[in-house]
């Protein structure tokens, strides 16, 4: 925790209380809890009064399945080959057949481990053979493997000395769900976001060259989702310009967005042209023709790359160059090889060996095709391929639903409200950056596909695309995780704020998000958005407030606006009445059509201090920590309300513009003001202090 503030004679003391969230820190100042770094689940609080709330001790992940006492414990498959492997050196001498056995055992180890902890499953299952081949062929950690995105690195972690730590995956003090430099020397670069691997690997390759290292093998493994990000093409362009030796492995599995297949203005096909181009290229030519093309084109390449091309042809996987998918990379200075079967070790290993031993200084792009969830039938049948899962039954893949359905998540509340706004206003549009499921845009797309836009992992484009829509009088709602909007910050400043274009930024996963860790915590948006002029920033404390603030954003047509809200569920009717004192005559949460907007810049008093108290303190909360503020007030005053310190609790609602009248009233009638927020230094505490 951090506490900052000042006090001087004759003036009220303003104290800011928040979460000191620095990317380099493992500890964010909270006590560890079972299941890792968690925020209080609003759903679990719906029937409790403030005296029954326990700070940060309730799990957050919706859909996490707890094994019942009646279930039999998991019986793991024997893994004699994997049991002999502690580090990559242990697989160097293995034959192809042994490596195939290792791959099978490693795949089941991933399935069994994730079934007990939850995590990213199918991405890792799709790269098992590729991971085994890379560690067999290359000399890691001297040779560099950069995974993009690194949630597919579970097999890599198991082969690099961390298999025994998987019960701690994504938990406090345990293994990160992504590569992490301080966790292992084999994790040369962290990648919790996307599209960074080629830039990083290129920098490493230049570093090896300038420091005269005898071997220079730097490999970026990038998915077809990650390569939709513009930064990947910037790096490809630069690598080709430098003629710098490096290897880019493009892992195409056709699962670009989460989930792929959301109805949008472009249909249901994956975002971006690459996947579609490759499919058309392969479907439009007979296999024999592709091999003949490979033989002809290979003559144009240096001798070592001709050998690689022949290897591809020998294994019957095709080598395509100068055709649709390849021409882009070749025009940018890369040699293009593929596509090849990423699950075929007989094919992968000889080609990787040729690339390793090549004396060429040209960058190479090896295009492999894999299947997300490969080898696990429940994942292959699931609409999202079991991308991110809670605990599950290995035999069926089933994740048990909660015993009693709880209140809607904030994400669902947003989606339902956006649908209601779009129902009456044809100018409302929704934008997501490859996260339709995570942001609720998949639900919006079912009803308004022509007004739903998934731009891929391209937040910069998403922001400016939304700004262009606003120019033409549309009302774009740009729904992006708080942590991912950081990638489009220049566009927020230059293209939306400075031009006063009314883009509505919807920041899901604001605050602490749980097990995904530091790369995904939404800790900085209040600070990085709050310093901008001419923008409205709102943070709801409950689901009714979220619906109302979305209406407010819809009505703002002369500047950008922000609505930020946490991961997790609302409180439901019972919780709203008991915790916040709502009067709900029908005993239900109102629908989006039944709520009104919130006046801009207007906070609210939630609890007044005992007027007889000797000292009075005001707690000014914003966003999802209002419950804890109310509980703290009750504890300080005591159950009987006869404590020496009286506590007022106010909900700021807006960080910009601040309700300065509310703050002035609190300052005039209280000895101190404490601000409570879920974010870094520079949020409401900083704004209030400057006022």
What is the arithmetic mean of pLDDT?
81
From the alpha-carbon coordinates, what is the Rg to the nearest angstrom? Answer: 27 Å
- What best-fitting shape do the alpha-carbon axes yield? globular
Which ranges are low-confidence, i.e. pLDDT below 50, for 5 or more consecutive residues?
Answer: 1-17, 19-70, 278-297, 314-322
The largest beta-sheet arranges its strands as 11-10-12-13-15-14-19
The total of helices stands at: 24
Number of strands: 20
Tell me the structural class: alpha/beta
Distance between the termini: 23 Å
What's the story with the biggest beta sheet?
7 strands, mixed
- Sheet-strand content, in percent, reads 5-15%
> What helical percentage do the residues reach?
25-40%
Question: What keyword list fits this structure?
Answer:
globular, 20 strands, alpha/beta, 14% strand, 24 helices, 691 residues, six-stranded mixed beta sheet
Structure summarized in a few sentences:
The chain is α/β, with parallel strands linked by helices and 691 residues long.
Strands, helices and their partners?
Elements: E1 2-6, E2 13-18, H1 96-117, E3 119-120, H2 122-126, H3 128-137, E4 144-148, H4 154-162, H5 197-210, E5 218-223, H6 230-242, E6 247-252, H7 273-283, H8 287-298, H9 303-314, H10 324-331, E7 335-341, H11 345-357, E8 364-369, H12 377-381, E9 388-389, H13 410-424, E10 428-432, H14 436-439, H15 441-447, E11 452-454, H16 459-471, E12 475-481, H17 482-485, H18 489-497, E13 504-508, H19 525-530, E14 536-538, H20 543-555, E15 561-564, H21 572-580, E16 604-607, E17 615-621, H22 626-637, E18 645-651, E19 654-656, H23 660-669, E20 672-676, H24 684-690
Parallel strand pairs: 2-20, 4-5, 5-6, 6-8, 7-8, 10-11, 10-12, 12-13, 13-15, 14-15, 17-18, 17-20
Antiparallel strand pairs: 1-2, 3-9, 14-19, 16-18
Helix pairs in contact: 1-3, 3-11, 5-6, 8-9, 9-11, 13-15, 13-20, 16-18
